[in-house]
Design brief:
alpha+beta, Arc Repressor Mutant, subunit A, about 45% helix, DNA-binding
Length: about 400
DNA sequence: AATTGTGCCAACCGCTCTAGC
DNA sequence: CGCTAGAGCGGTTGGCACAAT
């Protein structure tokens, strides 16, 4: 057996917390901070182990916790991130402001998982149960590519989570100290479910859910944007169904240049590990090139060397000297006029724009170019599929259907 | 009214990771 | 480099509330 539980010590209380205990813990932390959790109970006059105090604070007493019913957007975010990350609740929680990993985990297990199952969706694979084993729809090459995609997306999300923590530390050291799992970032979804198309089997596992939703989001928002480089936009306009960071308190140095058809969006973090850019042609560039300064000639050379790979759709990437370089073509075009993968020359122009802009925004400590691509059919099918699922969730949850 | 079943969620358990020595 | 304490994390459980019988 493992080590003995920390709460086995004689005299330490277990079980539900009383209001008096909550008050003691709250008062102590508000005055002194938590410091060492192990030492805290004695100082605060609590007959609890430090771990119990930490959990009580982290999951319940922290002032920046939002309690109550999950919103539709939160539900969608959980579903999408779970499709991408699996049971990595802490990573998911970093994209749901004011929600704890424990709360999200409980909500998934008691609500969302059951809904998906009753809809015939495997909550583990996020695929229709009949296709859960992946028979037929995925060839080995796709599976391998998707594995790469998942790794990169996962790494990117983790990096974002780290950034959030770092930003919390910088902008609110006390708050950071008091609750490390708090988050100032959010994944906000603008969901306008499309038609009531029936769920359809995914041609590929749903590892690209976030991008699918970003496509829908982009389509929607582009209608409200001017044709070219409308200038700096409010953060509210950046709300994206992807994991793209959003900082409600505007405490993070996020720069935006334009939006929509001909816009370039850039997120640049002064001490960041990830840089994400989107171009006017519907492809995305994620950089995460550890501890190296990115410069355009180097990038251009790398991409030139991988031109063939870039055009080897549906999923291509170049990988040189241990750094991966991806071009992400997630298609921002509308349904009738979907942008094709831009010619390499256009990619280079876009990159030039991005880095010309970002070179003025500060040093890029680190970067990776990570960009995945999905062919047009895959994207549209993903979008349709998830629209369908989420639409069903909306209908069933709002109508109080006995099904759920 | 009593018993049983079910859903929900706070809290616990134990493993893993990491920083400090 | 190995050890240790502290913290983080995901899985599981206990117990309460409510519904069904």
């Amino acid at each position: 057996m493992g080590r003995s539980p920390c709460c086995d010590k004689v005299g330490l209380k277990k079980g539900p917390w009383t209001p008096e205990e909550d008050q003691k813990l709250l008062a102590y932390i508000e005055e002194y901070g938590h410091g060492s959790w192990r030492a805290l109970p004695a100082k605060a006059g609590l007959q609890r182990c430090g771990k119990s105090c930490r959990l009580r604070w982290t999951n319940y007493l922290r002032p920046d916790i939002k309690r109550g019913k999950f919103s539709l957007q939160e539900e969608q975010t959980i579903i999408q991130l779970h499709a991408l990350l699996g049971n990595r609740w802490s990573a998911i929680a970093t994209h749901l402001p004011k929600r704890t990993d424990n709360e999200i985990k409980n909500y998934w297990n008691t609500h969302l998982k059951k809904r998906l199952m009753k809809m015939g969706i495997d909550p583990v694979t996020h695929k229709p149960k009949t296709d859960a084993l992946g028979s037929g729809s995925c060839n080995p090459k796709d599976a391998a590519n998707l594995s790469h995609m998942a790794q990169w997306e996962s790494a990117r999300l983790e990096a974002e989570a780290r950034l959030v923590r770092e930003s919390n530390l910088v902008t609110n050291p006390l708050q950071h100290q008091l609750g490390s799992s708090s988050s100032s970032t959010t994944t906000q979804l603008i969901n306008k479910p499309a038609t009531g198309a029936p769920p359809r089997p995914l041609p590929l596992p749903c590892l690209d859910v976030l991008k699918a939703w970003q496509g829908a989001w982009t389509k929607r928002t582009r209608e409200n944007c001017t044709a070219s480089f409308p200038g700096m936009m409010d953060m509210d306009d950046l709300e994206s169904p992807t994991s793209t960071l959003n900082f409600p308190d505007s405490s993070f140095p996020v720069q935006t240049v334009g939006f929509g058809e001909n816009a370039v969006r850039a997120l640049e973090f002064s001490k960041s590990t990830v840089l994400t850019c989107e171009s006017s042609h519907g492809w995305k560039l994620n950089q995460q090139h550890q501890h190296q300064h990115v410069n355009m000639p180097e990038l251009k050379e790398r991409l030139d060397n991988n031109t063939a790979a870039l055009h080897d759709m549906p999923l291509s990437y170049g990988c040189t000297d241990g750094n991966a370089w991806f071009i992400d073509s997630f298609r921002t075009g509308n349904d009738q006029n979907v942008s094709p993968l831009p010619p390499i020359s256009n990619i280079m122009e876009g990159l030039a724009d991005m880095f010309a802009y970002n070179s003025t925004a500060g040093e890029q400590n680190s970067s990776v170019v990570a960009a995945e691509s999905s062919d047009n059919g895959t994207f549209e099918e993903n979008k349709s599929y998830w629209n369908s699922i989420l639409n069903n969730l909306v209908n069933t949850s709002s109508s109080g259907s006995p099904v759920f």
